[in-house]
Amino acid sequence: MLEASLSEASLSEESLSEASFSEASLSEASFSEASLSEASFSEASLSEASFSEASLSEASFSEASLSEASFSEASLSEASLSEASFSEASLSEASFSEASLSEASLSEASFREASLSEASFSEASFSEASLSEASFSEASLSEASFSEASLSEESLSEASLSEESLSEASLSEASLSEAPLSEASLSEASLSEALQ
């Protein structure tokens, strides 16, 4: 386990598969285009770090602090991100297929055009997040909260939405085909032009 401070370190394009950065301080570090499959960042401090275009399949970010981090165009398939904090992070065009983000804090994060298919977001918080054109196809969103989130033009086709809160969320032009909404809370939600 690496409990070192690597703030502002540049590890772009490096091959670091299976490396352990658990509990490390990596604020403002750059991992752009790095190969980090199965790497561990559990409980690491990664605020403002860059993982743009990085390969992070099966990596672990459980309980990591990722505020204002950038994951644009990164691949996080089957990654473990449970209880991680992504407040104000940029996740545009990232792929989270089959990733686990249960109880993650995603407040004010940007998921523009992100692929979140088959991912698990149980009890995750998307408050004030921007999810325009993101795809949640077949994702599990049980008890997730989308309070004041913007979900315009995203696809929730076949997503499991039982018991989640969409209060005050904007779902304009969203695709909700075959999405089960049993026990969902839609108080003050905007559903203008949503396709159901």
Structure description:
The protein is low in regular secondary structure and 196 residues long. 0% of the residues lie in helices and 0% in strands. It has no helix or strand. Mean pLDDT is 82; it is low at 190-196.
Tell me about the biggest sheet?
none
Measure the end-to-end span.
48 Å
The percentage helix is under 10%
Parts with pLDDT < 50 across at least 5 consecutive residues? 190-196
SS elements, strand count: 0
Quaternary structure of the protein: single chain
- Helix/strand-derived category reads little secondary structure
Which whole number gives the mean pLDDT? 82
Radius of gyration: 16 Å
How is this fold's topology laid out?
Blueprint: no helix or strand
Features:
196 residues, little secondary structure
